[in-house]
Amino acid sequence: MADDSSYAIEVTVRPEYLEDQSDPAQDRYLFAYYITIRNVGSVGAKLISRHWVITDGHMKVEEVRGAGVVGEQPHLDPGQSFEYNSGCALATPVGTMHGSYQMLADDGTHFEAEIASFTLSIPRTLH
Fold it and tell me: Boundaries of each ApaG domain copy (predicted)?
């Protein structure tokens, strides 16, 4: 069996507040997030599904699960990356997201790629 470094996915996230699509008077704050998924391991792998945990400023938690990302199940050879963007709405001006991607390596091994917690927040100039 290969060591864990064979199955290594790096996930970077850049969140962005969408002021023009938000309506603070209605407690509706929209955020986009731009994701880069890079295979830094030595075995190719396919992204099968996702699991997100979204927490707003009132500590209300919503979990989202689904196949692939943005309608795709990208395959990443070692060194390859895949980029996409998506979004979410919160009822508060700040919240967090974290989760994981469920991956299937070319050798049949299932593993998870963790997505570290990141903050969704309106810019300080808008507070």
Answer: 3-127
Under 8 Å between Cβ of 37 and 80: no
pLDDT at 87 over 80: yes
| 98, 68 Cβ separation under 8 angstroms | no
Q: What is the pTM of this model?
A: 0.90
- Whether residue 127 lies inside any domain: the answer is no
Cβ neighbours around 70 below 10 Å, total: 11
When divided into structural domains, the chain yields a total of 1
Q: Where are the beta strands (DSSP E) in 1-109?
A: 9-17, 29-39, 45-56, 61-67, 75-76, 81-90, 94-105
pLDDT interval class at 1 (50, 70, 90): very low
Q: Where does the pLDDT of residue 125 fall: very low under 50, low under 70, confident under 90, or very high at 90 and above?
A: low
Residue 10's domain is classified under what CATH number?
2.60.40.1470
